[in-house]
Amino acid sequence: MTAALDVRGLTTRFETRGATVTAVNDVSFAVEPGRILGLVGESGSGKSVTGFSILGLIDSPGEIAAGEVRIDGDDLRAMSPDQLRRMRGRKVSMVFQDPMMTLNPVLRVGDQMAMAVRVHDRVSKRAAWDRARVALETVGIPAPAERLRAYPHQLSGGMRQRVAIATALLHRPSVIIADEPTTALDVSIQGQILAEVRRLADETGTAIVWITHDLAVVSSLADDICVMYAGRIVESGTAEQVIGHPRHPYTRGLIDSVPSRGQPGEALPQIPGSTPQLADLPTGCAFRPRCSRASELCRTDPPLIGKDHTALCHHPIEEPAP
């Protein structure tokens, strides 16, 4: 099956005072129609910059320095700014962590959703409102006609996030990039939205990249997982492979630190140290200073091991510790 989204060698850099920071370093992955890819990592790992880079939303002092981003075979990096603007919303959409980044507080929900429809399609306002109503129904919003007449501040946080997802679905895009869209929501609302997203991927065939720091979320949502650290993908595979049999020590540390895995009253295991500054990465493997399996060999660039389930590591977990 042809990938809906195919990213190859994506590299994004930012110019800072006295240094060039590589926030996304030679990142590659593919997502087939109807599948959900979880892009996981700590804050500062480069996962959100990866999402913005896919849509070409990197401005000075940043630049996409290398790589290909193809949606349904079309290379976004080869497009002019006007072509790219026409592609956004129609072929690829983004859902942000804060829905108020998507919603205008002074316009009714229906007006702004209808506006999003008419940017790409020459339809009447009534037809655009009808499409918006259907999109709200699709994400499980009750009384959608009433919600269209509401202003964003009149909706709950969970409802606003559903509106943002519905807006992203207006043109049935091939790909949706979701940047931690449920982080600020309570657990029950988060669960409802995750269930709706899973259903939408299955029913519409939209490929979804779900960016998150929460392995517990992607373990139940995603088909495939890519784990990022210091701008690079350090492990990738199916969700069952990555969660059930992690090969990279960083992935193992993330899984062990999930609260549900611990016993009440016990201290949670933690990965020692902190995420390195991208402007001052250690030589070789960036995870080396925090890794209990590190050896002198780890001062050199790690190899990519595996085929379907890969890890960027000198000492993957199936090997004994050096």
UniProtKB/TrEMBL annotation:
It comes from the Bacteria. Residues 5-255 form the ABC transporter domain. GO terms for biological process: peptide transport; transmembrane transport. It is a peripheral membrane protein. The keyword Transport applies. One of its GO terms (molecular function) is ATP hydrolysis activity. PANTHER family: DIPEPTIDE TRANSPORT ATP-BINDING PROTEIN DPPD, OLIGOPEPTIDE TRANSPORT ATP-BINDING PROTEIN APPD. This is Peptide/nickel transport system ATP-binding protein. It comes from Palleronia pelagia.
